[in-house]
Design brief:
The complex is a heterodimer. Helix content of chain A is 70%, strand content 0%. Chain A is mostly helical. Chain A has 9 helices and no strands. In chain A, helix 1 runs antiparallel to helix 2. Chain A is elongated. By secondary structure, chain B is an all-alpha fold. Chain B contains 21 helices and no strands. Chain B is globular and about 70 Å long. Classes of the chains: A mainly alpha, B mainly alpha. At the A-B interface, helix 6 of A face helix 2, helix 5 and helix 6 of B.
């Protein structure tokens, strides 16, 4: 009973949020409701006992992708989004194609009476603990190797982008010892200038 | 746990030395000291390999395989590594600025090579290919102000990323059918089935394409000439040898290990790629005036000679392939070593014509270079002739098949083409009007150790079929490697 209540709540949140994504006018609200939709989907994954999938949904989509979307939206459109008055026939055709294909998908599920029991059951639950054991115990050497790869990648990125010229050549600062070592004889020369001829 | 750790001893040593050299380079150690450190690590590993030679672990269920075959490939790779470290010991010099992180990249390439050669698990192989190629991309791209460097590195990177995606796709297919990454288990599953599923064959094709791109066999070779031309010699000498040894090692082990039941699908691929690379490499090398570009095309052709005998699926073919690989790697090392040595003492060598200038100052070294080119072209008294003979006669084992006779005739004809452009270099050196001398202003580095090493390697590579002791060692090692791979 509780499971069903939780499921329907999560499903409603997800569906409402997805409707908001395409119907709201302010693009920032769109992205925020996308985040809410992702949370709902992550909750559904948790209910299916796919903990890692749920967590990675939150970490990758909510944490990285939507924040990236937000950045793009905020930097691009400072004056608010304007609706296009005319939609070009290409976009219309694409919309019709996608709409009919999704509609056909849903219709086929309903018409063919596909039940959840037709799909193969998962073979034993694969929890976060199993995943951790697999990564940090069975394949621990591969994990170490991944660490080295990341190290080399970081080193390479720094090597390629960093300024190759040594700091002493680029930095403009006083060189005190050179200034102190200068004598009057090195730097000043007394010349008698004849009238009208100038200095060579 | 201890037993498993002992299994990984060379890799652990390289891993620790990567971290150490990173610390040294951050502490702004001198380039020469860093290269000496790298050389020491190489020599130490070589000593360990020699000492532990008799104690070879065969655990088919571990992710690393230790057998005479992997031992042989590791020995070649490590030998080339030591030679390169000796040659580059006195600093890089043809970079505009000394880059302290270079030794870290060298060692990480060595780690990738070791893991790739002895990997017994698809996940491990994928990761070590990544490690190997990432370090090589960085090596190509990090030379500031070198002409074409960035462009060639970009090409290499994009093609490498493509090959990685193919590789991952192929591995995914293999995993999808068998549910395991282990070579051993995959081979067992494949042998148990009467009809091999199509996904296995597709996965095999994808993985082969990725590896052929890494060794630059013909339809996948476009990146190699640009990389050779666009990178400084110190990088080229590295990229041309060690990653190729690694990729060839894993290719041969895959073909004779887990992919053996699939021979009907891989024999045509290897055959077509081999024939194409021999032809393409030979004919494209004819018109080149840039020495490094010419060597790149000739390297493509020689790769064809190395992979073609594999389609025989017998001991003779495998032996021919391995001895050709050894011969070619030694010769390439000494050719690049001599050219690098010329650059060190102040001669800029970009085109073939520049060699005739050098000939006036250093006739002995130029003569050695000429001998190496003659040996590469396959003239009788030198070992180039014997390895080519070995390759061509390996096709005579099955006389009834028309195609193998045709292939051997084709290889003979292509060797004639090769003789044309290698002899052309010798003509350029000795029978040409001398252009104006172009001597660089840098102070020459006179490195006696490097010079001696280069000369010794060159002499070995010229005569390694008839110098008594060395040919004995070669036959012994190759025989053991082949019999371990064919499970005799």
């Amino acid at each position: 009973m509780i499971e069903q209540i939780v499921f329907y709540t999560l499903a409603t949140i997800t569906v409402l949020a997805s409707i908001c994504v395409i119907s709201l006018n302010n693009p920032i609200y769109n992205v925020l409701s996308l985040v809410v939709a992702f949370f709902g989907v992550a909750g559904l994954y948790f209910m299916l006992n796919a903990q890692f999938l749920g967590l990675s949904m939150i970490i990758i989509y909510v944490g990285a992708v939507s924040v990236f979307f937000l950045f793009v939206v905020m930097t691009l459109e400072s004056s608010g989004y304007k609706h296009e008055e005319k939609i070009s026939w290409k976009k219309k055709a694409l919309g019709i194609f996608l709409g009919t294909s999704f509609g056909a998908e849903i219709a086929s599920i309903i018409l063919l009476k596909i039940n959840a029991s037709d799909f193969p059951k998962e073979g034993g639950s694969f929890t976060l603990k199993d995943l951790a054991l697999s990564i940090f115990h069975d394949h621990v050497y591969l994990l170490e190797l991944m660490g080295i790869i990341l190290l080399v990648a970081m080193l390479g990125a720094i090597l390629i982008t960093a300024n190759k010229i040594p700091i002493q050549q680029t930095l403009k600062k006083q060189k005190a010892h050179q200034q102190n070592e200068r004598s009057r004889e090195d730097s000043v020369k007394i010349v008698k200038v004849e009238f009208g001829k100038g200095i060579k | 746990m201890n037993e498993i750790l002992i299994q990984y001893y060379p890799e652990i040593i390289i891993f620790c030395s990567i971290l150490l050299s990173l610390i040294f380079s951050v502490m702004q150690a001198k380039m020469e000291d860093l290269m000496n450190f790298v050389l020491t690590v190489g020599l130490f590993l070589f000593a360990i390999l020699v000492v532990f030679k008799g104690k070879i672990f065969i655990h088919t269920d571990y992710i690393l395989m230790k057998e005479p075959f992997t031992y042989y490939f590791k020995a070649i790779a490590l030998f080339s590594f030591i030679v390169i470290a000796i040659i580059l010991r006195k600093g890089l010099r043809d970079f505009s600025i000394e880059i302290n992180e270079f030794p870290v990249l060298l060692l990480s390439i060595l780690l990738g090579t070791f893991l790739l050669i002895s990997g017994n698990d698809f996940a491990l192989i994928f990761l070590s290919v990544e490690l190997l190629s990432l370090s090589t991309y960085v090596m190509c791209a990090m030379t500031p102000g070198f002409k074409n460097s960035t462009e060639s590195a970009m090409k290499y990177f994009i093609l490498g990323a493509l090959s990685t995606s193919f590789f991952a796709f192929g591995i995914a297919m293999m995993y999808g059918v068998s549910g395991t990454f282990s070579f051993y288990d995959i081979e067992l599953i494949m042998k148990a089935q009467t009809e091999i599923p199509i996904l296995f064959q597709l996965g095999c094709v994808f993985i082969l394409v990725a590896l052929l791109l890494k060794i630059s066999a013909a339809p996948f070779h476009v990146w190699l000439p640009d990389i050779f031309q666009g990178s400084p010699l110190a990088v080229v000498i590295f990229i041309g040898t060690i990653p190729k040894i690694a990729a060839l090692g894993i290719l041969i082990r895959l073909l004779y290990g887990p992919f053996e039941p699939l021979y009907q699908s891989w024999i045509p691929i290897i055959c077509i790629c081999g024939l194409l690379s021999v032809g393409w490499g030979m004919f494209s090398a004819m018109g080149q005036t840039n020495l490094k570009r010419l060597l790149a095309y000739s390297s493509i052709a020689h790769i064809g000679f190395i992979i073609l005998p594999l389609i025989n699926q017998n001991i003779r073919g495998l032996q021919a392939s391995l001895s050709y690989l050894t011969f070619y790697m030694l010769t390439l090392l000494s050719v690049f070593g001599i050219i690098l040595w010329f650059q060190r003492i102040g001669h800029k060598i970009e085109n073939i014509k520049d060699l005739s200038v050098v000939n006036r100052y250093h006739p002995n070294m130029t003569a050695l270079l000429g001998l190496l080119f003659i040996s590469l072209s396959g003239m009788p008294p030198f070992s180039g002739f014997f390895v080519k003979l070995h390759v061509i006669t390996s096709f005579f084992a099955n006389k009834e098949s028309m195609s193998s006779v045709l292939i051997s005739v084709y290889l003979l004809l292509m060797s004639v083409v090769a003789a044309y452009y290698y002899l052309n270099i010798i003509k350029e050196i000795y029978f040409n009007n001398l252009p104006e001398a172009s001597i660089m202003k840098q102070a020459p580095i006179n490195d006696i150790l490097a010079k001696t090493t280069i000369i010794v390697i060159a002499l070995i590579s010229i005569g390694f079929f008839w110098i008594p002791l060395i040919s004995q060692i070669r036959e012994d090692l190759i025989g053991k490697a082949v019999s371990s791979l064919m499970r005799l």
